[in-house]
Write a structure and sequence with these properties.
- The two termini are about 15 Å apart.
- An 8-stranded parallel sheet has the order 2-1-8-7-6-5-4-3.
- It is globular, with a radius of gyration of 16 Å.
- It has helices at about 20-35, 45-55, 80-85, 100-110, 125-130, 150-155, 155-170, 185-195, 205, 210-220; strands spanning about 5-10, 40, 60, 90, 115-120, 135-140, 175-180, 200.
- By secondary structure, the protein is α/β, with parallel strands linked by helices.
- Helix 1 links the parallel strand 1 (about 5-10) and strand 2 (about 40).
- Helix 1 (about 20-35) crosses helix 2 and helix 1 crosses helix 10 (about 210-220).
- Helix content is about 40%, strand content about 15%.
């Protein structure tokens, strides 16, 4: 996993359903190439394989709820994610939470499969607990700011700073990124100034009228 990074979560937005997911992913790929920055996209499970086959940038799954492949109807196993072509996975997003003991099994298994692992957490202490499990990165996201347009880097900067310091002190090999309410390039720049190594966002890019222009705005602060 390369840093700094911009991760775009498509969630289950209609704007990123079907072929539209590829359009957004290709816009992200174009920006990544033009700026020489790291951008990953996380399409819905239904579009995961399609997007992974369509772009060269990292494609992450939005989650998994079964550790190993087997007789689990309507569930997603880590092996399914890998076979679909994903190079990484987001775990424990506030909209798809996992128990700590599940994360304790999922993260090592995902890493063994060669997947980058971004583990979400709501606050500094939970971020530290997640970091003990060995993910590639911890994404600190106060859930009350997600989807509000109130950027964590502006409205709760102390949460970001404390997480960066706490995780960095004990687990320097685990990167800290952030998200929640990120809407602009200014928000991304503010997050990076606070010491994070990237940003996880969704609606700002996915719901934009011009995906290329918006992703370009969001990604420019990553240029170093």
């Amino acid at each position: 996993m390369k840093f700094p990074i911009l991760i775009i979560n498509f969630k289950a937005y209609k704007e990123a359903a079907g072929s539209r997911s590829v359009e957004i992913a290709k816009a992200a790929e174009r920006v990544a190439k033009e700026l020489g920055v790291n951008i990953a996209v996380a399409p819905n499970h239904f579009e995961l394989a399609l997007v992974a086959q369509s772009v060269a940038i990292p494609v992450y799954a939005q989650g998994a709820d079964v550790e190993g492949a087997g007789a689990y109807t309507a569930h997603t196993a880590l092996e399914n994610v890998k076979e679909a072509g994903a190079s990484g996975i987001i775990l424990n997003h506030s909209e798809a939470p996992l128990r700590l003991n599940d994360l304790g099994r999922f993260i090592p298994r995902a890493r063994a499969l060669g997947l980058d692992v971004v583990t979400c957490a709501p606050d500094p202490r939970t971020s530290l607990a997640a970091a003990t499990l060995g993910p590639s990165a911890v994404a600190v996201e106060p859930p009350e700011l997600i989807g509000t347009g109130r950027a964590v880097s502006k409205y709760k900067p102390e949460t970001v700073v404390e997480t960066v310091q706490l995780v960095g002190r004990h687990f320097p090999d685990v990167a800290v990124i952030t998200g929640a309410g990120i809407e602009s390039g200014e928000d991304v720049e503010a997050a990076l100034r606070l010491g994070t190594r990237g940003v996880l966002l969704a609606s700002a890019a996915v719901k934009a009228k011009d995906h290329y222009q918006k992703i370009m705005e969001l990604a420019k602060p990553l240029v170093r």
